[in-house]
Design goal:
By secondary structure, this protein is α+β, with helices and mostly antiparallel strands. The chain has five domains: about 60 residues, Helix Hairpins (Orthogonal Bundle), CATH 1.10.287.610; about 240 residues, DNA ligase/mRNA capping enzyme (D-amino Acid Aminotransferase, Chain A, domain 1), CATH 3.30.470.30; about 110 residues, Nucleic acid-binding proteins (OB fold (Dihydrolipoamide Acetyltransferase, E2P), Beta Barrel), CATH 2.40.50; about 80 residues, DNA polymerase, domain 1 (Orthogonal Bundle), CATH 1.10.150.20; about 70 residues, Rossmann fold (3-Layer(aba) Sandwich), CATH 3.40.50. The strands form seven sheets. Strands 14, 15, 16, 17, 18, 19 and 20 form a seven-stranded antiparallel β-sheet that branches. A five-stranded mixed β-sheet has the order 2-13-10-3-9. It has a four-stranded antiparallel β-sheet with strand order 5-4-7-8. The longest helix is centred in the N-terminal third of the chain and has 23 residues.
Length: about 675
């Protein structure tokens, strides 16, 4: 082959190889196999070795070449490369729009729209092409001066060495300036770390650090081994483009790889939808993103808005909720696990971490507390990774005020009072009472049951998990839970967590009889709780009641009176009542519908399922009007109210000749007494 023939062949090979590079990296399409493309590259390489004078800067063989540099030279950017201000919430975004709107005319305000890009966790670069061929490539640097890393950028297949001819009739400028992002995929990141692990080297912290470190290697051969990728996102050169969206279309047409997920959004509502979608789906992407970039789509308006500090007013980084945040340790409580293990749990000032609000973080054990040096009142960094309860990562002792308190693990179990032990060779302190955890669970089950706080959706299995994970130590803690505390639990999605928190918060108001019954005082059933509420009228008076006064109540004998008196004179119980008040529990006064109770002296028994209300509601309606409730049918029973599928109580009422009334007749009775 003559030199002239070789030159023609080389040009054809370059065009063909560049065509397939464009298909693969820009259009995500492949017409020939990797092996076939490698074969074309090998032929080109061999020809250039034979005729080295035919090697040009835009040749695909020049992606990896040249001697290692001694240092990078500085390059001044044609226009400053700005960074973006951050927004972390929809409110932040609304405030941003309000700020920029003040700088626009009424017409411009109405026409404002946006272009959204995925914010890749990589390194910003600038590329300059002269007559379609890559001349220089640089880092952002300080925004004014960057470092010339052209040799390293040439190793990245996604970056064209020669621009593609455009089909558009527009005049193509001789110099074209493009900006983009260099990054490494999750797959390549993991691959590099596995290699380092085999060599017993320190692992890389994150993909961005690798991308930045790789692009700044003085030897481009090292950069080439890292298999970096790139997206173009901005066209500095004037092609008479009117919108940012149009910039992307032009970039793609001249050979650049554009992120296919970037999207036009006509208003903030669509921006929020786009942000939420990718916050939930980002794990499915082959690369890391930490938010979206929202840009005013009109180039004219963007330029008009100008720059404040080092950031353009017309663009903002709408970040995803961080996986770490700082907050305060308000308290440290000990949770007793199923096996008796004592686990310290930090009660935090609620903070947004990983998209959800959390208020608890595990401290694992006594050794972990010593290692962290955490105190009550400390400012800490808390993190959440995967489906686990948040951890305290670091204490910030520089922010201490001197009022912080040292925490000591209890010598006795906080639930049952049994002395704790630390088995030899274990880090865990344990309660040796095998019944302790079961008693605690049973109390929780009673507290949330239908006859007490009636928290719908909070069943025994969820309670068990909350106790085991250290999220609650007593029922008052239920009312302090946040959505983010529940999401890490198995089978809890964002919506189910939201629903349960709403259900718990909706039950903060409770009648006095239900509240007394919920306290789980020994020997106090539903009816005795009602009698106590009626007699004393308030919790304050009940707390102050003497044993003699308690015995004045019908059916309250010496044993029951002492049980009530003792309960209200135990320090831990009084602290529990204070805690319930602090979390917002409100005790409603007993309702009195009329001066002369119409059902006074009448006893009702309920059986079967009611359609219009549950059984507890029906009982309360009867009590409101002076009636009594019994759980069994006897000659003292006046009415048996039956619903669907009534049980044996209905049959016994028939045998004893007790009057039975259906739900319709019962509702008619209540309506007659103006109870509804």
């Amino acid at each position: 082959m003559t030199k002239s023939e070789a030159k023609k062949r080389i040009e054809k090979l370059k065009r063909l190889i560049n065509h397939h590079r464009y298909l693969y990296h820009v259009l995500d399409r492949q017409e020939i196999s990797d092996a076939a493309l490698d074969s074309l590259k090998k032929e080109l390489f061999d020809l250039e070795q034979k005729y080295p004078e035919l090697i040009t800067l835009d040749s695909p063989t020049q992606r990896i070449g040249g001697k290692p540099l001694e240092k990078f030279k500085k390059i001044r950017h044609f226009r400053p490369m700005f960074s973006f201000n951050d927004a972390f919430s929809e409110k932040d975004m609304e405030d941003w729009q309000e700020r920029i709107s003040k700088l626009l005319t009424e017409k411009e305000k109405k026409e404002i729209d946006f272009f959204c890009e995925l914010k890749i966790d990589g390194l910003a670069i600038e590329l300059i092409y002269e007559k379609g061929i890559l001349k220089t490539g640089s880092t952002r640097g300080d925004g004014i001066l960057g470092e010339d890393i052209a040799q390293n950028l040439k190793t990245i297949e996604a970056i064209p060495l020669r621009l593609k001819d455009r089909d558009s009739p527009r005049t193509v400028p001789e110099e074209i300036i493009v900006r983009g992002e260099v990054f490494i995929s999750k797959k390549e990141f993991e691959k590099l770390n596995k290699e380092r692990q085999k060599k017993k080297l320190v692992l890389y912290a994150n993909p961005r650090n690798i991308a930045a470190g790789s692009i700044r290697q003085l030897d481009p051969k090292i950069t080439a081994k890292r298999r970096l990728d790139s997206f173009a996102y901005d066209l500095v050169t004037d092609f008479r483009q009117k919108t940012h969206e149009e910039k992307h279309q032009i970039l793609k047409s001249i050979g650049f790889k554009i992120n296919p997920h970037n999207k036009y959004c006509k208003n903030l509502t669509e921006v929020f939808r786009f942000h939420k979608f990718w916050q939930e789906k980002r794990t499915e992407l082959p690369y890391e993103i930490d938010g979206i970039v929202v840009i005013v789509n009109s180039n004219k308006n963007f330029e008009k808005l100008g720059v404040v500090g080092k950031a353009p007013r017309g663009a903002i980084a709408f970040k995803f909720a961080p996986n770490q945040a700082t907050t305060k340790v308000e308290d440290i409580k000990v949770q007793i696990g199923r096996t008796g293990a004592l686990t310290p749990v930090a009660h935090l000032k609620p903070v947004l971490v990983g998209g959800v609000t959390i208020s608890r973080a595990t401290l694992h054990n006594e050794d972990e507390i010593k290692k962290l040096g955490v105190k009550i009142g400390d400012t800490v960094i808390v993190g959440r990774a995967g489906d686990v309860i948040p951890d305290i990562i670091k204490v910030l002792p520089e922010l201490r005020t001197g009022r912080e308190k040292k925490f000591q693990m209890p010598k006795k179990c906080p639930i049952c009072g049994t002395r704790t032990i630390k088995p030899k060779g274990e880090a865990i302190i344990r309660c040796t009472n095998p019944k302790c955890f079961a008693q605690q669970k049973k109390y929780f089950y009673h507290f949330i049951s239908k006859g007490t706080f009636n928290i719908v959706g909070l069943g025994p299995k969820i309670v068990d998990r909350l106790i085991e994970k250290g999220l609650v130590t007593d029922p008052a803690d239920l009312f302090r839970l946040e959505e983010g505390d529940l999401i890490p639990l198995e089978r809890f999605a964002e919506k189910s967590a939201e629903n349960l928190i709403e259900a718990i918060q909706s039950q903060k108001k409770i009648t006095l009889p239900r509240f007394i019954y919920a306290l789980g005082i020994r020997n106090i059933g539903e009816e005795t709780a009602v009698d106590l509420a009626k007699y004393f009228g308030s919790l304050v008076k009940l707390k102050k009641a003497t044993i003699e006064k308690l015995e004045n109540i019908m059916d309250v004998g010496p044993v029951v009176a002492k049980s009530i008196f003792d309960w209200f004179h135990q320090k831990k119980n009084l602290q529990f009542l204070e805690k319930l008040e602090k979390v917002g529990i409100k005790i409603e006064k007993i309702k009195t519908k009329t001066k002369r109770p119409k059902l006074k002296g009448l006893t009702f028994v309920l059986t079967g399922g009611l359609e219009s209300m549950d059984r507890e509601e029906a009982k309360e309606k009867i009590r409101e009007f002076g009636g009594e409730i019994s759980e069994s049918v006897s000659q003292k029973t006046n009415y048996v109210v039956f619903g669907r599928e009534p049980g044996s109580k209905y049959q016994k009422a028939k045998e004893l000749g007790i009057k039975t009334i259906g739900e319709k007749e019962f509702l008619k009775m209540l309506k007659q007494f103006t109870l509804l």
